């Protein structure tokens, strides 16, 4: 494979999942669920955990349940000070600079979150574009329109674009779309898992791509050499 475009997830991919910001985001999502269903935080946690495998995102699930104010959700989940819990990643910029391939972001978060985080990490200028949840009609990964939108932004195809994400269902979604995907870390289960979330089952008539695994984004250069 000749990789001409890199499509990166943002959260838990460009920086470690141990970030305090991610705990805050998860807490804010559960708070939104609790507020909407008028239940306790613990009950909201249980509801979300049971329902999320059937949907691409918490927002999609809530909208399926009748929630109709995505902008309120975005403001609750991603406040302006959200990067207060994020740590700097001094090795990230040198890593990205060492990979001379055009890069784009595909995230199920709103663009303001992506802009905030990339600026905080000091790498915004290294990404040509951001495809956010609004650009996907509020129904992002693992659905094909999300990958199509990011590929269109990148100017690439599944044959020359590598997708990198920490979440199992999102990398499987891209693989089943016909592309080559890389799972970073162990988000949502190891990539060898036989459990495939029902939101990203392979569609009949579509070719199947390939799936790789790396422990962190810093192993990406070695994988690119392997693919070449």
Rg, alpha carbons = 17 Å
Please tell me what the overall shape is: globular
Distance between the termini: 6 Å
Helix content: 25-40%
> Class of the largest domain, according to the CATH hierarchy?
Alpha Beta
Structural class: alpha/beta
As residue ranges, the low-confidence spans are: 190-196
Order of helical and strand elements? EHHHHHEHEHEHEEH
Mean pLDDT: 90
What count of helical segments does DSSP give? 9
Main sheet, how many strands, which sense, barrel? 6 strands, parallel
Report the strand count. Answer: 6
The tally of structural domains comes to: 2
- The CATH homologous superfamily of the largest domain is called HAD superfamily/HAD-like
**What proportion strand?**
5-15%
| CATH topology group of the largest domain | Rossmann fold
Corresponding CATH architecture of the largest domain: 3-Layer(aba) Sandwich
Report on this model:
With 228 residues, the chain is α/β, with parallel strands linked by helices. The chain folds into two domains: 5-16 and 88-227, Rossmann fold (3-Layer(aba) Sandwich); 20-83. The chain contains nine helices and six strands; from the N terminus they run E-H-H-H-H-H-E-H-E-H-E-H-E-E-H. The chain has a six-stranded parallel sheet, sandwiched between helices. The radius of gyration is 17 Å and the shape is globular.
Summarize the structure.
With 228 residues, this protein is α/β, with parallel strands linked by helices. The protein contains 9 helices and 6 strands.
């Amino acid at each position: 494979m000749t990789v001409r475009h890199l499509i990166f997830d943002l959260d838990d991919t460009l920086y470690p999942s141990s970030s305090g910001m991610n705990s805050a985001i998860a807490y804010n999502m559960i708070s939104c669920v609790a507020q909407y269903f008028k239940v306790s935080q613990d009950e909201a946690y249980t509801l979300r955990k049971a329902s999320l495998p059937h949907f691409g995102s918490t927002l999609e699930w809530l909208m399926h349940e009748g929630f109709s104010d995505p902008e309120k959700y975005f403001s609750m989940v991603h406040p302006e000070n959200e990067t207060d819990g994020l740590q700097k990643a001094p090795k990230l910029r040198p890593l990205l600079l060492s990979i001379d391939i055009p890069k784009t972001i595909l995230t199920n978060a709103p663009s303001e979150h992506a802009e905030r985080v990339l600026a905080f990490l000091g790498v915004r200028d290294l990404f040509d574009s951001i495809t956010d949840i609004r650009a996907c009609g509020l129904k992002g990964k693992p659905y094909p329109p999300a990958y199509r939108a990011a590929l269109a932004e990148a100017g690439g195809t599944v044959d020359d674009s590598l997708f990198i994400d920490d979440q199992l269902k999102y990398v499987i979604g891209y693989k089943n779309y016909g592309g080559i995907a890389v799972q970073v870390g162990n988000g949502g289960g190891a990539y060898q898992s036989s459990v495939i979330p029902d939101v990203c089952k392979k569609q009949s008539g579509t070719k199947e791509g390939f799936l790789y695994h790396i422990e962190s984004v810093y192993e990406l250069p070695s994988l690119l050499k392997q693919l070449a």
